[in-house]
């Protein structure tokens, strides 16, 4: 496709071309949640980081859906889901919404792959429903209260200057300098306009950083339940150049879930799916093939 035609391509047509999966929508409370639901078999749910969306998993969706049922929701405020101003964008609200989303799909057992804030939300669900979880893969995220926010995030939380840094200088979107023009456009489209920027500002505010923050109580509840996953298959995949979730957070994962297999990607950063796609695909598929299907066979045998 030549440059002139690409420039004329609408956002809708562009997204359909670069993210060619059926678009499903579920009404949860007052909001429409977009999600991908591809393939059949053992369920694998993928949760995106913020301000990213399900597009970041496009390669994994294509690969995993050949063997698994792959479900990838866009968190409210991001991707192709609604971006309401009357949703509070707090951690507990996301967790409760995820509970209803999974209940509506009538799922009985899932394997979780989580990244960033999506991983935190997924762990919030997991500690409430540990028997639903077959295995966990976590990438650069937090599930504990001992998180020291980096300077860039602290600057984005300041009055007046914070919104300027977040919206106009796109401080929270940084880390994807090596992305192609098309990939940058795909990540940018859902963030355009006032409705796309508001959830990003609320995301910056909601990350727990001080004891009195609303999200702290939710993160403490998650932290208290991490012990339940010391007997389940867990793999931690860590991008070592991620400025938001650094190696100190990785050490905490090892502390709380010492049985977790840890794999580091030296040259990957915030956009881990874009920086190391082949390595990431190999690590996740190998882990799921070893654990998810084994769990499926074991349970099938019990039913006979």
Question: Could you give a quick summary of the protein structure above?
Answer:
With 304 residues, the chain is α/β, with parallel strands linked by helices. It has a single domain (3-299), classed as Alpha/Beta hydrolase fold, catalytic domain (Rossmann fold). Helix content is 45%, strand content 15%.
Main β-sheet description? 8 strands, mixed
- The low-pLDDT segments are 1-5, 296-304
Specify the helix fraction band: 40-55%
Mean of the pLDDT scores?
89
Give the DSSP E fraction (strand runs of 2 or more residues). Answer: 15-25%
User: Which CATH class?
Assistant: Alpha Beta
Shape: globular
The CATH homologous superfamily is named Alpha/Beta hydrolase fold, catalytic domain
What is the quaternary state of this protein? Answer: single chain
Tally of structural domains:
1
Total helix count? 13
Distance between the termini: 54 Å
Q: Strand-and-helix sequence, N→C?
A: HHEEEHEHEHEHHHHHEHEHH
Count of DSSP strands: 8
Structural class: alpha/beta
Biggest sheet strand line-up: 1-2-4-3-5-6-7-8
In CATH, the topology is named Rossmann fold
Radius of gyration, CA atoms, in whole angstroms: 19 Å
